Structures are given as structure tokens and as C-alpha cells.
Amino acid sequence: MASISENIIKINSELPSGVNLVAVSKYHPIEQLKEAYATGQRLFGESHAQELVVKAPQMPNDVKWHFIGHLQRNKVRQIMPIVSLIHSVDSIRLLDTIDKEAKRIGRIIDILLQLHVAQEEAKSGFTIEELLSLARNGEFCKYENVRFCGLMAMATFTDDQSIVTAEFASVGATFRTLREEKLFPLETFKEISMGMSDDWPIAVAEGATLVRIGTDIFGPRQY
To answer: H helices within 64-160, ranges in order?
Structure first.
């Protein structure tokens, strides 16, 4: 079985220029994160506030922590001093809380808006129509402590690649529409976070700039 270092080197060799690897380290022990770090990995993705709070002090200061899971509003304060990017902003209420907490500690926090394009109802996020409507109505202009950096999405969990391709393509098209209509500042609104171990090549083909890969780096989760 290949090592964590070998896995990271292989994936990076396959990623096109301009696409960055987020190593999804949730449920994996700190020793494995340190092995990834030693290979040059600096972007790590965590999904649980408590796990992030425990792990962050054990890793070097130049690690950039991305929060990639469903974020409860009562957990925002915990992660706010640590995270460099929140991928999973899926509601106006969460956005309000993030803005308020960022203001409280004097930060401007980078975020991605999560689109719901998958067929599973359990996955959260704005619909494409909802997000376009909110943006066109200027609803995102009032946030002073949030920097809008792009979109995030998850595809339907299926073996049918045509479904996955169509969903990722819809995210790419929405991203381009938001930029063409200048609904967010173009200098910061540059990222599309989509694609995981099973589907990242499709995501990259449809415009992903961040891929969130865990299993193909660290192996099966250690609960």
C-alpha cells in the first residue's frame, strides 16, 4: 500500500496548474497529518469544530485550516480564530453568525457559498435559483467582515458519471454567471471547491480550483 507521502505526490502530479489539494484529515490521527505536512501539504480540511480545535495547536503555524463540513451556528465562535476558509456556508442565518463573530474578534473571514445541486435532500446549501436571486438583490453586500471567495458543492453519491458531470457543470455555470454579472468582487471571487476522492477528475474538468481528498491520501477513516 502506498504511503501518505506517495499518495499526495501522485495526486499533485495529476492536478492541473491552478488547482489546489485540500487534504481532508477528519477522523485521522495527528501523526498522519504530520506525515502529509512533511511532504509539503499545507491545506487541511476538517468537518468538526471540536476536532479542529484539538488538532490545530498540534500542527505548525503555517497550516491553513479549511472548514469543509456542515457548520452549526453555535460552533462558529470556536473555529473563528483558527480557520482560513469556510467552504460550507449554506444559509443566510449562518452567514449572519459568521459575520458577527468575525467582527467580534476583528477578522475578515474568507468563505465559500455552498450550492445544493445533488439529488440527496440531506445535503445542504442554496439552490442555484436562490443564490442568484439573493446576489442580484444585493443581499450579500451588507457583510463587512466576510470575504466572498467562491462556491462549494457536493455531487450526488452515484456511480452514474453523467449525473455527477451535469451537477458539477451547473456549479461552474453559476460561478461564471456570478462573475460575469459582477455580483461579487472579481479579485476575490475565484474559487470553486468541488470533487472528492471518487469524482475529483470530473470536478476539475468542470472548473474546480479546490479538491477535497481524504481517502485517497489517508486511506479509510479511523473513527
So the answer is: 76-79, 92-104, 128-136
The Cα–Cα gap between 140 and 61 comes to: 31
3-state secondary structure 144-167: CCEEEEEEEECCCCCCCHHHHHHH
Which residues of the chain carry a pLDDT beneath 50? none
What span, in angstroms and rounded, lies between the C-alpha atoms of 206 and 213? Answer: 17
Asked whether 186 and 223 are in contact (CB, 8 A), the reply is no
pLDDT of residue 123: 76
Span 157-208, pLDDT tens digits: 999 999 999 999 999 999 999 999 999 999 999 999 999 999 999 999 999 9
Q: In this structure, what C-alpha cell is assigned to residue 176?
A: 461564471
Give the C-alpha separation, 67 to 34, whole Å. Answer: 18
**Per-residue cell: 156:** 450526488
How far from the centroid of its chain's Cα atoms is residue 150's Cα? 10
How confident is the model at residue 223, as a pLDDT?
Answer: 53
